[in-house]
Design brief:
210 residues, alpha+beta, NADH Oxidase, 7 helices, 8 strands
Amino acid sequence: MKKMLSSFVLCSTVLSSMGAEKAVKLPEPDKLGGKPLMQVLTERKSTRTFSDKELSLQELSDLLYAATGQNRSDGRRTNPTALNAQDVVLYIAMKEGLFRYDQAKNELLLEQKRDIRSLCGMRTEFYTGSPLTLIPVSNIATMKAKNIPEDKCRIFASLHIGCVVQNIYLYAASAGFGTVCTASIDSAKLAEEMKLDKDHVILISMPFSK
């Protein structure tokens, strides 16, 4: 198993030393752990008090896999999407920078080397007081490429992001973390700061902590 020392190295230590490579290989997610499903559903809740304690790389890998990881050899994911569009791109805002999750390689890719957590929502203390904020974004261009009408794409974007949100909530309940889904954000401003084009839909953000 790969859950050795790397499982306990704090994200900040590794991410700050990435150098020019700008990618962090995550350990294999633990696919056998967690609480029974019915217990997790019972314990699922929103949290509005956060700790700034960093997640280990193993915890981060497990979280991202639960949210929208690749769970089949054909590239399909833990979250459903219409016509397997796989339109949801998961971004992670941390003090070390803005990262994007690469499901196929199980890697974190550095998008921007700056802290944008304070821009992730109106309740700034939620985001700056937690080690990371998850931002699931729907790229509706991937649905348009499958000939899904744009009005349907906008509806599906909400549904697809909602599935990722629930996956995150269930992982949090299973592993003893706290999170909240908040729509009190300036989506246009955040998209601008993230350098996203008009086909990218931001609806919510989720601060996440131990």
